[in-house]
Design brief:
about 300 residues; alpha/beta; about 50% helix
């Protein structure tokens, strides 16, 4: 459960004392700030975070389950804001993933956005209301929990990146799926624009990105904050294939999950178990992110609304 942050000790014990001292020295001031967000003492209980975050913003995340095909459709729905994630939508997403965890008829998930666009990241109107490290850490905790659980479900997941694409937090959401398919429209991009906004990834996207494209390529994408076309994203294996419509995505996934449900779920659960070794590091990611949320640089970028420029 998210309230248990004992994994910090596991991380500390997994490296030698000299490495740990070097790590502590490297993050010196940030480390002292980060300790306030979960290394010592109890974290905010998950139900309290859910209740608090549900008050912020509009939109919804919608779920349709098809027991005949075993495929669930999850739709991000705040069309007027390019499906950016409000606090309410983050809570909807959390509840949907909890629901899918109990869906024994399931084989696959398609994650897409309403109105032809995937996800433009976090809702900046909501971000401005919770732009302080404590709120940032709580928000990141819920999204990390939700996306980590999505990644580890015994279901094969694919997202369809279309329209304005997957930007910032939207790109992090995309990495939580097993596959990423992308439209080849000129305006459809994927990009980790966090550094442009004065923050760092906090929803587990950094380590998932490293798993997908390697550390060197991940570093370049994070530092440059550049937006990639479908062809560019496919060339570095960030995106698996170009595809033209949501209907085509459905056909593509049905081919992936055409065999016995139990074997598919067993394969996925085994692969998920292999990734658990990084859990302590993804929780560390949240703590390093927290002091950047609402800092001077982040507030200036929010004021200038620079995310899509």
């Amino acid at each position: 459960m998210i309230g248990n942050f004992c994994h910090w000790q596991i991380f500390k014990n997994s490296i030698c004392q000299s490495q740990f001292c070097l790590f502590r020295k490297m993050v010196h001031h940030q480390f002292n700030v980060v300790e306030k967000y979960g290394f010592n003492g109890p974290a905010t209980p998950l139900p309290d975070i859910v209740e608090w975050l549900s008050r912020y913003g509009e939109g919804s995340v919608d779920l349709i389950k098809n027991s005949e095909t075993g495929i669930a459709h999850v739709t991000l729905n705040q069309v007027k804001k390019k499906n950016c994630l409000s606090g309410k939508m983050m809570v909807d997403f959390y509840h949907i993933v909890e629901d899918l965890e109990q869906w024994t008829d399931g084989k696959g998930i398609i994650l897409s956005g309403a109105g032809g666009t995937f996800c433009s990241g976090g809702d900046l109107d909501v971000v401005r209301q919770i732009a302080n490290p404590e709120s940032g850490f709580k928000m990141a905790s819920l999204m990390h929990y939700t996306l980590n659980k999505l990644k580890n479900l015994p279901l094969i997941s694919v997202c369809f990146i279309s329209g304005a694409g997957a930007i910032g937090g939207g790109a992090e959401v995309a990495t939580a799926c097993d596959y990423r398919l992308m439209s080849n429209e000129p305006n459809t991009k994927i990009g980790f624009v966090h550094s442009k906004m004065g923050i760092a990834p906090a929803w587990g996207g950094l380590l998932r990105l490293v798993d997908i494209v390697g550390s060197r390529q991940a570093l370049d994408l994070l530092l440059s904050a550049r937006l990639l076309s479908c062809d560019e994203a496919c060339s570095i294996n960030l995106v698996d294939s170009q595809i033209d419509s949501l209907d085509s995505v459905n056909v593509w996934l049905q081919d992936k999950v055409k065999f016995d449900k139990e074997s598919i779920r067993a394969i996925k659960l085994t692969l998920s178990a292999c990734s658990e070794k990084n859990r302590a590091l993804t929780e560390l990611e949240q703590r390093l992110f927290a002091p950047t949320w609402g800092c001077a640089a982040n507030r200036e970028m929010l004021r200038r609304a620079i995310k899509h420029k």
